[in-house]
Specification:
The structure holds two protein chains of two kinds.
Chain A: H1 3-16, H2 21-29, E1 36-43, H3 47-58, E2 67-70, H4 75-79, E3 92-95, H5 97-105, E4 118-120, E5 122-127, E6 133-137, E7 152-156, H6 157-170, E8 176-179, E9 182-189, E10 203-209, E11 222-231, H7 238-243, E12 247-263, E13 277-283, E14 288-295, E15 299-306, H8 308-316, H9 319-329, H10 334-340, H11 348-365, E16 376-379, E17 385-394, E18 398-399, E19 402-404, E20 410-411, H12 419-439, H13 447-474, H14 482-496, H15 498-509
Parallel strand pairs in A: 1-2, 1-11, 2-8, 5-13, 11-19
Antiparallel strand pairs in A: 3-7, 4-7, 5-6, 9-10, 10-11, 12-15, 12-16, 12-17, 13-14, 14-15, 17-20, 18-19
Chain B: H1 2-8, H2 48-64, H3 69-80, H4 84-93, H5 96-104, H6 115-120, H7 126-137, H8 153-173, H9 179-193, H10 196-200, H11 210-230, H12 247-254, H13 262-284
Classes of the chains: A alpha+beta, B mainly alpha.
């Protein structure tokens, strides 16, 4: 342990030794003067925040650090999250092989409910305007006798969060404090305590139970000081505002429509057996791509990036019409889709027939490529939702005693499914950085220690975010103009050059 | 090329038996010797060179003899792809009525449009105007030939529909079928439908007399540009459903002005010339 930490030991212990009773005692005797000191305080209990905690607890070097997590939502709910096998949450992420390797390393992978996780070995991407396509698989690099290599792994975020929580719990509750249903009411610099440590350059958080929780009246606010404060608190990160880190970016004026879908059994058996494919079709006239990513039991999750108007229209459709629209979006021309997006919703009955009738009729006159997904046959109740798409990138990820990870540091367009992977990449890098600092006797909150994390991640994330932004812009030019011609040529060329494609796939795989 | 042009251009109808291509052969590259199966009854698949030869041949032929409607139709089909006919189909697919037409695929013939019924419609209705125009020009809806050179069957229908509706455009605008009126309508159609043949037809201007040409440039071309650009896509009019509508109301809906009546102008000029001649005769007498 670092020298500074051992010097502070008396103060740490005085408050931590008494566990849960400590806050109340302190409140009654000396009113909130000495905040409790933690080595790492993580604000935000999403996949990134929990991942960091799990990673720190998993490494023998960092497992004894005193860590705390503050999360406004009820983590008990996340812990006991359970759905019937044929139902899936609509918040699903694709994990690249390097994210999976990281989860395996910290021991969270085996805690995932594997019946709810789906690998896919192939990805078909094509341009709805020109029909040019590219397919991603590892067939070039593996021999025909091996099992096909996984391109990415689909998992529900809730499943991942639950696995990470159990991983953290399995590491014991020594030196660990989880503030569930708790919000950060303020972050400020501490003060120089005459009889204690000089915390004037340390972030001190005041956390109080969330207003929604019934316990809000009984439990008083708690003050905690952080040697390293980690912001994993999402796009409107309070930690980022405290650190006064500027963030750049823009809103795409697009929404991502998500849903859990049931697929028809495909007539043709896949070869090799059990091979699953992800599909993505760019719809330049509608504002973005539609993607269908496989889930177990012939289910799939939908991510359809489109304009807010179209998203509102899709959400307002009854299930049958919604299914027809999704099937149409993978099959029909831009002209048909634009028309169908404006079709009036007269009455429930009439309207259902309308969308399906249009689809059936147009399918007779639209030649189909052979790489389209199976027909969608059902949509899970209440699974259709949408979220705004944005681009944000913090100007730096670190500041003295502060580090940002996940969405607090960067938010990107979801067209490549890289958001969560970048977050987990941050976690892997930051936990390594902390480990390095601890083994070398450095202060984990020191800017010099954190520099390593920032160097590793800022450029990598900027690159992936920039490529996604470029693709978004390229595939938002409607019509058959020179841009459409150029992007189709590029796509076809890359599809035919195995070396270039392999390079790009390795970049995407290691992008996290 | 010259052989092909000689074979194909003079009479496109001679080519019809070619559709019985050998189907038993293994899939081979599309060439003159290996023609694929037709995509719809009456379809004749053409190679790029054949299509080009057909376009040039029919263009020259129809310029020499503007009464050859079959050559004009062939020119329309040979130059409609790529892009133009797809654009027109997409224009139909973007409109509710256009979609309904594509779905129903109505045909305009003397049996689907019985003339006695049209004549019985009220004065100034679209149907009555159409019938009156047919009577005045002495033509029948049955004179339209089948589309054969457009590969996509849906686009072939769009071409067929355009061709069959052409007489309705004549009726609504009141333009006659002699070269001058036809040219004015073709200019209007080119700006409205963007079918290249209608634009190419304007080369027939070289056949106009200087006085007619001057009238065309000062009177009808400005009208065609104004109306063609301002009006809605005419292909999306379901003519079978608007037969009983008032023709002025329809013009207003489509945003077309009525062009100057060519026959009236001609009659007036002829009368003036006659009067002039009489006066000259009187003076000399």
């Amino acid at each position: 342990m670092s020298a500074s930490r051992s010097a502070l030991r008396p103060y740490v212990c005085s408050s931590c030794r008494h566990g849960v009773l400590a806050p109340r005692r302190r409140f009654s005797s000396k009113p909130a003067q000495n905040p409790e000191i933690y080595d790492v305080v993580c604000v935000g209990g999403g996949p990134a925040g929990l991942g960091l905690l799990a990673a720190l607890r998993a490494s023998p070097v960092t497992s004894k650090l005193k860590v705390a997590l503050v999360e406004s939502q009820d983590l008990d709910k996340a812990r006991s999250w359970d759905l019937p096998t044929h139902e899936f949450s609509n918040r699903v992420s694709s994990l690249t092989p390097s994210s999976v390797a990281f989860l395996r390393r910290i021991g969270a992978l085996e805690l995932l409910d594997t019946d709810r996780v789906q690998d896919y070995q192939q990805m078909q991407v094509w341009d709805g305007e020109t029909g040019s396509k590219i397919s991603f698989d590892w067939a070039e690099e593996t021999s025909p006798f091996e099992d096909p290599r996984t391109v990415a792994t689909m998992t529900e975020n809730a499943n991942l969060v639950r696995a990470l929580l159990s991983r953290i719990e399995a590491s014991g509750d020594e030196n660990l404090k989880i503030f569930s249903k708790t919000t950060v009411s303020s972050i400020e610099n501490g003060s120089d305590h005459p009889d204690g440590p000089d915390l004037s350059a340390w972030p001190v958080l005041t956390v109080a139970p969330s207003e929604a929780s019934p316990a809000s009246t009984s439990e008083p606010p708690v003050r905690i000081a952080a040697r390293l404060l980690v912001g994993a608190d999402g796009i409107n990160s309070p930690v980022r505002s405290f650190a006064d880190i500027a963030t750049e970016g823009w809103d795409y004026n697009r929404h991502g429509v998500v849903a859990t879908l049931a697929l028809s059994d495909s007539e043709a058996p896949t070869f090799p057996a059990g091979m699953r494919t992800a599909f993505q079709r760019f719809l330049p006239a509608l504002g973005g791509p539609i993607a269908l990513l496989p889930l177990p039991n012939n289910h799939a999750t939908l991510v359809w990036s489109t304009t807010p108007e179209h998203a509102a229209y899709l959400k307002s459709l009854p299930p049958n019409a919604f299914i027809s629209m999704v099937n149409a979006a993978f099959r029909l021309s831009m002209t048909d889709l634009k028309y169908m997006m404006k079709m009036k919703r007269v009455g429930e009955e009439e309207e259902v027939n309308q969308h399906d009738a249009e689809l059936t009729w147009r399918l007779q006159h639209t030649p189909q490529p052979n790489h389209i997904p199976p027909m969608v046959t059902g949509v899970q109740e209440r699974s259709v939702a949408s979220f705004p798409l944005r681009f944000r990138h913090a100007s730096t990820y670190i500041s003295p005693r502060v580090a940002l990870i996940g969405d607090a540091a960067h938010v990107i367009h979801p067209l490549a499914g890289q958001g969560l992977n970048l977050g987990l990449g941050d976690v892997a890098s930051l936990s390594n950085t902390i480990e390095y600092a601890v083994t070398h006797g450095m202060d984990v909150g020191d800017l010099l220690s954190l520099e390593r994390y920032s160097t590793e991640r800022w450029g990598a994330n900027a690159k992936v975010g920039g490529v996604c932004d470029l693709l978004h812009k390229l595939y938002n030019v409607p019509g058959q103009g020179p841009v459409a011609w150029g992007r189709s040529l590029g796509l076809n060329v890359i599809d035919r050059l195995p070396f270039v494609k392999g390079f790009l796939m390795r970049q995407a795989e290691g992008g996290a | 090329m010259s052989v092909l042009a000689r074979q194909i251009a003079p009479s496109a109808r001679l080519l019809t038996p070619v559709t019985t291509a050998p189907a038993c052969l293994l899939p081979r590259h599309f060439s003159v010797l290996n023609r694929p199966q037709p995509n719809y009854p009456g379809h004749i698949p053409l190679t790029f060179i054949e299509r080009g030869a057909l376009a040039v041949g029919s263009a020259v032929g129809s310029l020499i003899n503007p009464r050859r409607g079959d050559l004009i139709a062939t020119l329309g089909e040979a130059t409609a792809t790529p892009y133009f006919i797809y654009r027109l189909r997409d224009a139909m697919l973007s409109d509710a009525t256009g979609r309904r037409i594509l779905r129903d695929r109505p045909r305009i013939t003397s049996s689907t449009m019985p003339l006695p019924y049209l004549r019985s419609l009220p004065e100034n209705s679209v149907g009555r105007t159409y019938a009156a125009w047919l009577d005045r020009e002495g033509v029948s809806p049955d004179t339209r030939s089948q589309v054969q050179y457009i590969d996509n069957e849906e686009c072939a229908y769009v071409m067929q529909r355009y061709r069959e509706c052409h007489d309705f455009y004549h009726a609504v605008t009141g333009l006659p079928i002699f070269v001058e009126g036809e040219l004015a309508l073709k200019a209007f159609e080119f700006l409205n439908t963007l079918i290249p043949m209608t634009g190419l037809s304007l080369f027939a201007m070289v056949r106009l007399k200087p006085a007619e040409r001057e009238r065309f440039f000062s009177l009808h071309l400005p009208w065609a540009v104004r109306s063609g650009l301002a009006s809605k896509e005419l292909i999306n009019v379901y003519w079978e459903e608007v037969l009983e509508k008032n023709v002025d109301e329809l013009r207003r809906e489509l945003n077309i002005e009525a062009p100057p009546d060519l026959r009236e102008i001609r009659r007036m000029i002829r009368r003036q010339q006659k009067e002039e001649k009489q006066r000259m005769g009187q003076q000399t007498a």
